[in-house]
């Protein structure tokens, strides 16, 4: 699967580690920046570029990483069509897909180590959305909110 990756400087090393992990598992990674951690960078433009691509459906999923996962997920969620979820364990990652149909996984490089982050990404990518039930109805409600509040 093609997976979009983005980070700021704080998430750069974990992004590279996870990209290697995903490549080894047969996925393709598309990097939307940052391209270095040599100096501090804002997560905002990278999150927006990734989110616009994911919202358009190509790639279908994204992984965004900053120090906490918070700033970059808040930014991603400002793009119409993005449901970004910060996850700190595999259970949250499974529920983000199963119940919320999240299309962007957010991670905090200062919160989770590489091994746990890799397990979280794997859980996120493996879990299908539970279609046809109350969770689909909730996601449709979220989309209604978007339609009312986004251009
Ligand atoms: C950078 O120091 C840090 O503030 C950023 O990576 C992120 O954690 C913000 O939410």
For the structure shown, list the relevant keywords:
151 residues, alpha/beta, Ribose 5-phosphate Isomerase B, Chain: A, five-stranded parallel sheet, 6 helices, 5 strands, 46% helix, globular
Distance between the termini: 30 Å
Give the number of domains: 1
Q: In the CATH hierarchy, what is the architecture at level 2?
A: 3-Layer(aba) Sandwich
Unreliable residue stretches: none
CATH superfamily: Sugar-phosphate isomerase, RpiB/LacA/LacB
Tell me roughly what share of residues is in helical segments.
Answer: 40-55%
Indicate the CATH topology.
Answer: Ribose 5-phosphate Isomerase B, Chain: A
Order of helices and strands: EHEHEHEHEHH
Continuous helix count? 6
Write up this protein:
The chain has 151 residues and is an alpha/beta fold. The protein has one domain: Sugar-phosphate isomerase, RpiB/LacA/LacB (Ribose 5-phosphate Isomerase B, Chain: A), CATH 3.40.1400. Helices cover 46% and strands 16% of the residues. It contains six helices and five strands. It has helices spanning 12-24, 44-55, 70-76, 90-98, 114-126, 134-149, and strands at residues 2-7, 28-31, 61-66, 84-86, 104-108. The protein has a five-stranded parallel β-sheet, with helices on both faces. Helix 4 (90-98) links the parallel strand 4 (84-86) and strand 5. Helix 1 (12-24) crosses helix 5 (114-126). The chain is globular and about 45 Å long. The protein starts with a strand and ends with a helix. The protein binds D-ribose. D-ribose binds at residues 8, 10, 66-68, 70-71.
């Amino acid at each position: 699967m093609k997976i979009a990756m983005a980070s700021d400087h704080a998430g750069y090393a974990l992004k590279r580690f996870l990209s290697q992990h995903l490549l080894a598992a047969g996925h393709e990674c598309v990097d939307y920046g940052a391209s270095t951690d040599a100096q501090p960078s804002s997560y905002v433009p990278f999150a927006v570029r990734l989110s616009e691509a994911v919202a358009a459906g190509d790639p279908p999923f994204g992984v965004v990483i900053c120090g906490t996962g918070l700033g970059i997920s808040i930014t991603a969620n400002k793009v119409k069509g993005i449901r970004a979820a910060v996850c700190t364990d595999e259970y949250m990652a499974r529920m983000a897909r199963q119940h919320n149909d999240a299309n962007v996984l957010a991670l905090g490089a200062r919160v989770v180590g590489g091994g746990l982050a890799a397990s979280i990404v794997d859980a996120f990518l493996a879990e299908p959305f539970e279609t046809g039930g109350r969770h689909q109805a909730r996601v449709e409600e979220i989309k209604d909110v978007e339609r009312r509040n986004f251009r």
